[in-house]
Here is the input.
Amino acid sequence: MMFHAGIPPASLLLLLAILWWPLVLPLAPGHLQSPPTFITLNGSHLNHLLLDTHSSHIYVGAVNVLYHLSPDLQLLSWGKTGPKLDSPDCLPPIDPTDCTQAETTDNTNKLLLLEEIKGGDPLSLIVCGTVLQGICEKRSLENVSQVLYKTDNPVDTQYVAANNPRVSTVGVVVEQKGVLLMLVGRGYTSKGPGGIPPITMRRLTPVARYSAPAFSHEELGKLVVGSYSEYNNHFVKAFHHNNYVYFVFSRRDMWGKREYRTYVSRLCVGDPNFYSYVEVPLSCGGGYNLAQAAVLGYHREQPTLFVAMAMGQASTPTPTDRTALCVYKVEELDKALHGAQLLCYTQEGKDANNKEKAYIEYEVSSSCLKLPQDSLNEYPCGGEHTPSPIASAIALEATPAFTWTPPITAVTTATEVGHTIVLLGDKNGRLHKVFLHANGTGTKYDTVEVDAESPINADLLLDSNKQNVYVLTGRKVTKLHVAQCEKHLDCHTCLSNRDPYCGWCSLEGRYLSSPDCCYTPTPALSTLPSHQAAPLVLHKHLIIWKSFTYSMWPCHWCVKDELCTHDKSCPRQHVIYNSRVSVRSLISPRALPSPDLTVLYLLVVSSLRLICVCVTVQLYDCSVGQSDCSQCRAVAGNYGCVWCADETPGCVYNQSCTSGTMDTCPPPLITEVEPLTGPLEGGILLTIQGSNLGQSFQDIQAGVTVAGVTCRPLPEAYRISTRYNSSVKITASANATAGPVVITVRGSEKGESQQTFSYQNPQLSRIVPEKGPLAGGTMLTLHGSQLLTGQRTEQSSDQIAVFFFFCSIRNEVSDTRLICRTSHSNQTGRVPVKVVFGKAERILDSVLFSYMEDPVITDATPTESFYGYVRSRLIIHAKMKIQKCSRRCSSAYVSFCLQIQELCTNVTSERMICKSPMVEPKSRIVRVWFEMDNVHIDFHTIKNKLFTYHPNPDLFQLNSESRGTPIRFKPGGVLAVEGKGLTLAMNRDEVVAQLGDKECVIKTLDNTHLYCEPPEEQPLALDDSDLPKLKVLMGSLAFDLGPVQYDNDLHSLVPLAAQIGLAAGAAVVVLIVLVIILMYRRKSKQALRDYKKVLVQLETLEINVGDQCRKEFTDLMTEMMDLSSDVGGPGIPFLDYRTYAERVFFPGQKGAPLSQNLDLPDSRRQTVEQGLGQLNNLLNNRLFLIRFIHTLEVQQSFSQRDRGYVASLLTMALHDKLEYFTDVMKTLLGDLVQQYVTKNPKLMLRRTETVVEKMLTNWMSICLYSFLKEVAGEPLYKLYRAIKYQVDKGPVDAVTGKAKRTLNDSHLLREDIEYCSVTLTVLVKSGVEVQPCPVKVLDTDTITQVKDKILDQIYKGAAFSQRPAADSLDLEWRSGQAGHLTLSDDDVTAIIQGRWKRINTLQHYKVPDGATVALIPRSQSSLGVNQFYQTGEKTPMLEGEEEEGLRLWHLVKPSEDPEIPKHRKSSMRERERAKAIPEIYLTRLLSMKGTLQKFVDDVFVAILSTKWPPPIAVRFFFDFLDDMAEKHGIDDPETVHIWKTNSLPLRFWVNILKNPQFVFDVQVTDSVDAVLSVIAQTFIDSCTTSEHKVGRDSPVNKLLYAREIPRYKQLVERYYSDIHNAVSGCYQEMNSTLTELSGSFASEMNNLVALHELYKYINKYYDQIIMSLEEDAAGQKMQLAYRLQQVAALVENKVTDL
Here is the structure.
């Protein structure tokens, strides 16, 4: 109704309603709404709820069942989905014989979606469950028992949902180019097929061309994740908004603190490759980090994401009971996602402060780049060259709007009168209604108990009219009214509930939702939460206060609180008093399409109770949209709008105009006419703009003329009073005319334009060019006059059509010229050119355009160029372009890479010359082609080869030593210029050399030299310099090689004075030479005398060395005789077989598999051991084992260390089947021989580069263990003890490891260190008795060295592992009854000189010969009466000193000149000689060598002697190598000798010689290891066939045994020869030996641990191994791949992809 000033009838109506409502209320029969509707479905556990908005039908997914319900929850149909025979460890179809663990399994519904095309009806119901690895099916929407699609034999790409009921799965259906796709987010499951990504895109219909079935992700995008179990995504929601798909999930933050966080990821709908994937973390203040439910809704008319968050338990994915609701604007979310993409695209993921804000997640081998700034605009959905998947390091922040306990499990939203209501379901089965304020905070105003103690499912759905909500719990489906107004029986409780949906209906006397009352004549009483006044909407913030002067209720208005109250004061103290009634109407700032508006008035009454009345009024603002008189008068008359002619004329309400209204409008005003030209024939559209151009189309229908010519307006283009289009038509006239545009409104008032419109006659004169190819693309220029006729200045010129086929305008059109690009033609011929101006056509008859056959290129040379060189070439046709990529690009990024082009010249019908484009060095050329208009010809199609770019050539300076200095040139010769890469893409004819202003003729050009012949006379310089410079031009590359100076052949005669001077100078030189000769003779005699003295000294030294050797050897033999009494039984500390095998198989590796146990939980142990047993069976399949090894070895990431490790694991696993192991090893060695025969057979077995080579090492170690213990062990142990004894007799530097007695010159102590032998009496406790034991040490020994020597003596013959460690004991010097002093390597008495600190020795403590000492446990050491300081432990103290900047030294200071100590036994002359010639101490090597010679000989003879039969394994393997050589036709005996040497001496014996700790329980110090290295190298040299030549420059270590090596070589050759000549046929004996070895030592091997370690490699390269097995026909018959899959199911607790 209309509402104007006066007494409102609503007041009387309101008074009447107040008096009636107590009487009407008890009589209202239907004042209560119907109770909530619910249905329990046969006790089924319900999983998912789906609403079909087209039919309003409900679909429920439950365990084993589907239900189809009507809107009022009546059962329409149902169908079974389970249970089914299944196991998560097996792949469907399930065969009980193959999958023994299969059992009847419930099918939990995981996905329930509608297959529907946008704008159309749904097609089917998509149902996915947990059984059969989560496959899906389609069902009928009318009858869910009818299956429309299912697969009986699914492939691995059809596994969709999680096979675990507790693991989440979400999905959304989208449409891409008319094809329906389903995007699925699936959590991690420990069982089932591995490798299913967390997010996949799947087809809903089969695609024949891909052979892809429905629900397959083949050839579609997926989110690739390195280790999904680490990230452990838990998906909450997937939804489609605008052109994106969003996923809400929580996962472990692997980039940050490895805590769980909530993320939102986004994908473009049209991105089938997931190039656009980006995710951003969500932060909900207060520590709420785990998303539980989410929904996309609206808040304040903006799309908003509502997420229910829980607080996690520490760093686990388990939520606590504390939850919160957080609200995120989608606009801000998109901004954060866009920002992360932009940073990763263009700034390498870093912000302005170089901090990483975006990165590549999920262990993908990609990285953020530095692409051009517009890359994201150019590729909003990414591309092959853009990085992905991108994750933001910056979280999107939000403050909790509402917190609640117990946990929130469901969320949805509704909007009522612009207000947001959030419905939250919790774990206890209650539904909470929360009003969300504008500031983002929420207030709960109601709670409904739906299903006690049964959590509300996340599928909380509103019906299509948003009045009812469907609530799903585990037991039932409930339909609730969102507004439950019926439970309030009086106005006070009704209004105090503050439900936005409800109001008190005064006439009916009951609480109803507002639509039930306000849209009828019945006034309704309404209120809002938080004491808010209901807003009334008026246009442009108009605030209207209406006084009801006859009302009796005194209401007051609180302005700041926007509250109407009966109180005398307001909360914020700003009150407007009124004794009657106040009405407030508040306008929304949003512009509405019309000033006509229906609003609700809020009448607030203060009396016994608070009452609200709803009144409908209509308002109209005349000033809106009426800018001139015509528009104002066009308004409907019932609104009373008039044009008021006061100082500021305008359109107002008639009662608001005080100065009088205008009965007629002013004349029309034309402000703009466009265009201002047109053809004589007319036909163009003319736009006229202005004001007062009529109130309707009929006003101007016959009143428009253009330059005197009538113009017909178009009714559809007419806008009242402001604008319309006219179609100008005029009869052709020879004379062009011009004039203004005139408009007459209703035949009276006229308006004339200031602009003049001109009629023109455009003409065409010629075209250039006159021909082009059939493919089109020719830029055609048309010349003429008045070609701008009919053109609109603000529009682009491409709107003019030029026809002869079609030619699109390319450039700006001028009055005399226009340019267009020709289109494709189907046939050759000549065609006319026609231009249309409106309805005027101009045809150029004098010249026709000719379509010619497309050009063909038959040859193009050359085929290569330099990067920076523009090289001319001879070809057929025009314009050559190159598409190139920078180093970062790959061929997949062609669309992003740069294009470089060069124009061709000298174009004829048969030939043209083009220049190769210049490109950046190190660019990668993607494509080279010739472009002739629209004809593109790739270079490789011409020559069948690619155009190649080479690095730029380089020419060096003529004078390389002094740049810029001229070189001298003798005329008649040639100039030689050095360079590199000169002929890679260049020939001699293309090089030009200039010397000054003349040419230097190129004579020769090769890859490194250029020779040119300069002119006979020196040319002039081209610049201001005196000398000409040589410049070489190679295409566009110019080289300035420096100046050239000619030598002149004309020499002047030498003057007489100069000749005399030369003669005198020569005489002086002769005299000087004579003097030098005399001095030389004198010095020579002196040197001869000194030489004789040195000979005497050397002779004395030789005698001393010989005496020393004899003495040392005597002492050593005495020591060895004592040792021999211990050797032969328990005296040699042999390692047990298990430890021996561990050290040989896994050298230097701590925690080797042999010493490990299978660490598994008891619940999994039996299953895993069963799987490992099946793996053991597979390894016993020769085909599988060989395929397995070969497949591993071709993997790039399978390192050399991995090869050795796998070989040792196989040795352990097959140790109980050594005969089979040997057979497989022989097969693999046969393959290895085949490889090396074609290359260099002498290199075979030289290194351990393959699995089989390490297998051979292990095999030899197993087979020769008995030989070691019985034959070679004793001499080897004696050699070790002899070395240790000799080394320990002399000083050994504890810091550098250098020793006086050694065989290794790099470890030789080259200084004459003064030392004395000291015998200590060590008190050894034996039971209750303490016995003294003498121990020889050196006074220069450190305290740790002394402790080691004492332990060696006390525990002589015992295993090293059985004796205490030196660091666990303290050395105590005892003198008398009370004098106990603890000695230490470092204490407060240590000597510090500058930055050097010396380690304490016995000499430092002045311990005398015969002193009594004792080793005591470190914990028992205590201070004695004579001890004034407390010592520290050696090692930590030394490390600490190093950290403090002090350098430690013992005997000599490292890397510095040695200080000569005080000598007591040597003269000053000897000390000077020692300082001058330190190499003289190399004789110590000879002394050591002579002492150890017998022991070295014994070891070599034990290994290589034929006195006893060689080991059967050696004979067997040498025979095998001979057979291999014969089989492959290798006649060279040296090759076979090398094979045998590489397989036995180098592979086994050298390893044992260098590492006696592999065989014995001993400790090998660095100084002992240095000696063993020299002996091992001697053994290697003895086994080679090459002649052992030595000279003065040979290494000292090789010179030591130069005399013995030939003798050792004879031993080796005789050993090989005897084995070769022995009776063959040892195979049977070998098999018996292997069987015996298998039984003897199999129990020592940890078989299960080895198999478990091997499985890790199978899992790592699973796909490659499966592919290899599947490619083998025999493997397919044996079902090896399937058997391996069964192993994976048991061991990994999942089935890996086939």
Observations:
- The chain has a mean pLDDT of 78.
- The longest helix spans residues 1056-1126.
- The radius of gyration is 51 Å.
